[in-house]
Amino acid sequence: MRRRAADFRRPVRRRFAYWIWLLLGAFSLAGLVLFFLQHHYREYRVHRPFLERNAKVENSAKRLNFTEEILSVTSFSRQLSEQMVLAKAYVIIAKEHNNLHLAWELSSKIRSCQLLLSKAAMTGDPVTMEEAEPVIKSLSSLIFKAQDVHYDIATTIVMMKSYIQALEERANTATVQSTVFAQVSAEALPKSLHCLNVKLMADWLKMTSRQKFSHKSRILPQLSDKNLYHFCIFSDNVLATSVVVNSTVINADHPKHLVFHIVTDGIIYGAMKAWFLSNDLKGATVEVQNIEEFHWLNESYSPIVKQLHSPESRAFYFGPYQGVNIEPKLQNPKFVSLLNHLRFYIPEIYPLLDKIVFLDDDVVVQKDLTPLFSLDLHGNVNGAVETCLEAFHRYYKYLNFSNSIISSKFDPQACGWAFGLNIFDLGAWRKANVTAKYHYWQEQNADGTLWKLGTLPPALLSFYGLTEPLDRRWHVLGLGYDLNIDSRLIESAAVIHFNGNMKPWLKLAIGRYKPLWHRYINQSHPHLQDCATG
Prior knowledge:
Elements: H1 2-59, H2 66-71, H3 76-96, H4 100-123, H5 129-149, H6 153-187, H7 191-206, H8 208-216, E1 229-234, H9 238-250, E2 258-264, H10 269-277, E3 285-290, H11 303-308, H12 311-318, H13 338-341, H14 346-349, E4 355-359, E5 363-365, E6 382-384, H15 395-398, H16 404-407, E7 421-425, H17 426-432, H18 434-444, H19 456-462, E8 467-469, H20 487-492, E9 495-497, H21 514-518, H22 526-533
Parallel strand pairs: 1-2, 1-4, 2-3, 6-8
Antiparallel strand pairs: 4-7, 5-9, 6-7
């Protein structure tokens, strides 16, 4: 019986131990579950703001574009962007200190930022916390590492300032270089025009009888007939001058009453003469003169001639290009060529005339210009279109008003006007002695402190109070640089002006305006055909 009782109690103990272990396991499991629940609850409380913010971002992704997303102060995209900007700065500084490994690590994380931002921009979905957190943490640690290495805020600021200055210098250099290249393109004579000049010069050398006749033609009565309409053009561009003359003749009511006075240099003189001797101008009179035969235009009379002959001026204008601090446009010899300044000597060149219209060689005439001669200038010398409606065309934009010589005599807000189409009353010019005023101001500006260069600044001074405003439709400017001129304004204009670098005879001309100029070229001329095909 004892054995049986013992045998009976043994399984009971085993069952009791089994239940004890089962209860202990249950309590342990419950504790473990409770521990995990508490841990996750703490994590939830810590990350709850981030999760809520991310949920808001996800819910509003359909309404916000990427620009709004990256500007939002609560978005991960903005955090990534700001971290990336700072990291880029440290990449530059690390490279400057030859810490290439740190620069490589930063660059790697920057690429990760860029990939996330690119993905957000492409998909339209905001960057999530799971995506942003590892990148932001690693990037932050690298930035702290960069600071610990010795790249503190003061060093960063100094380095960034120097880097910004270097970038500005590079940008300025690039801007100047592009301007130089544009200026070179604008000044370069196309091969076809050079070919034309050569062929015309060869023709002129063969015209021995015509050369004798040209000397006799200088005493033609039409050249000083005050009952005719006189126009002057000063140019060394044969084709451009031909377009000015041809367009004026074609659009004139009475072409036989027109007289054109052309002055060119000694190199182009023969070609210019040959061209106008071989072209029909509907009875209009054309006189071609050589500026080198104006012996009165010398150093003792003209300040600009004296300045041109000085070694300093020749080195500046005609010497090698020496730096980026000089505006390339101002080194163009055209700005100081005698042909360009000849407009200030019109009364001396044509002493027997009372009125004359001055035309630049980059204009096209679209209407009859003879009504200009009957306009009342109210005693003024110069009739010109004012340019105040456009930017940079008031006196203070052209002249140095910090100089008392300028500021004491002129209004900085006075309206500028344009050369290109001007009607001059030569009687009033002589009475006001405008050429002497021009000489005075040219001498005052011998050191270049009153204005930079060009003919308009001294003209604004010399014709101050002596200019009569003309209707804007007489002269529309900007076809050499402005792509957006109103077509109606162009159609209504008596004269359109291709002022700017994009001249119509160059490849860089604005295509929209080219036909306005090309229609007045005599395409049937054999030399033009030969040079175009050659």
